């Protein structure tokens, strides 16, 4: 028996949908003009070293990076690899995880790096935007050109941003779309004004200039300039991750507008730099940023305010994306269960307090450690190069699963793989200039994922399972034994065993050995997280009885696991079709409960037995997992059982062989 619990929602193509897409998807990549040209100039010796060859070559590299990685790889290829409308590295992994077990490796590496990006993005974008204040004479005359005030303002904005997460961002989120539309219009218009004075700048769209510049003597950074160029496409992975929030068609229709505005901004900055490169006053500016300097003096305050708002929107998108990413990892059993709150009615909006706190403190730490955006940029690009490379590996396997000709799939992974490896090498070269922070953050997240995944594997391979059919008669006798009072009318156990008819051995131990538990109906509920994001189905096994029911809840990896709510619907369904008998309640105070008896959920809590005979590595992994479980959210809250009768029983988790012990009996002299 299989039933649907709900139906899928569809995203409609509309003006409001297009605006939401601008606000949700493009915050990260949309703020790239804030720091890309700045990083390129600083890496090449400053404004005094700017030449025609540098501008044409650098802009060519930026244009083709945006075209190859963002437009072709993500918009044209990755968006087609959707998991029932959902995107992102874990959605992609869920599609192909049955192909090979090793695919978990690129998935968790990419996921860890993407979470690290969620820490770095607010720090980089907000700091860069606030540094624009130093281009305003009124600000300089009052606060000076020091970095301390910039740091304090940045810390206040980041703190405020993380504090409001607990209240949900549905209301302010409605303004993100129009604000980002105006942001792109602003940077595109400013760029266009400067492009109109120098149409020769369009020559930089030829790949010839970029290739020549890479090997030119005028390229003082050499091959490592690619690390700064890559910053232009850092938001491409977020674009794929947000597919489920806005839909593919909305991205298809908005990306041309976004890309044109981005290119006009870059080209405008380049044309302006060619005109002012000999200006000694500009050459003397410390932390010179053409994005702000290109603006007219009367407009600069507006420009800085707009950049700050855009940076906040970009940060909000990455923070929300981090919650979603962690939630998916939890459902895929890659991270421990964490308390999750749904602060608004918006689809997919959630808030994970512990993740919010970690992100907030980490962002503050990054700002205080690096102190200026120039140093942060080294760490920033490295995180995304790692994620992009892992996504390419998963995309290749997706194409193979979809029976795309191996030649085409091979060409895809070779082309993008080589390109991203080049970007990775150029970014990793800045390891000691700040890149090590990315590695530390990502490695910490990765270690937790690996330990959690390995511990689950150990349990699945060793923990015993038993057949309910073997205990069918015994359960029947216990149900009929009137000398034992009812423990509950409906006794419910959660089982990790997905195989039909099988449950955990610890459950049988709890029913018969620990304390005989008599019930009218014995329920065994297994929650299966499906490869689809929003599945809501269930199956039922009754073993030709009306008192033994094994239920499998098939829930998508983005669906909350509210077991109590779902089970009540299932009980009503089974009573309606006669699978189980009604349970009249004489003292029920409402009609809804008059045919449904009481429920008691028994949760079996595992404690690692000292008798377990495991290797040192296995014992360490299991000990760490059980330690993490103590600080993670309780199964009661995770499975939505807060308002039900729940009993927790502690049983020893015996893994491997039992340690052999032998006591020697001695006699005592009296």
Estimate what percentage of residues fall within beta strands.
Answer: 5-15%
Counted by DSSP, the helix tally is: 26
Helix % is: 55-70%
Please report the total strand number as a whole number. Answer: 11
Q: Which secondary-structure class do the elements indicate?
A: alpha/beta
Strand arrangement, major sheet: 1-6-7-5-3-8-10
Mean pLDDT: 84
Choose one word for the global shape. elongated
Q: Measure the end-to-end span.
A: 71 Å
Task: Tell me what you see in this structure.
The chain has 670 residues and is of the alpha/beta class. It is 56% helix and 10% strand. The strands form 3 sheets. Strands 1-6-7-5-3-8-10 form a 7-stranded mixed beta sheet. The termini are far apart.
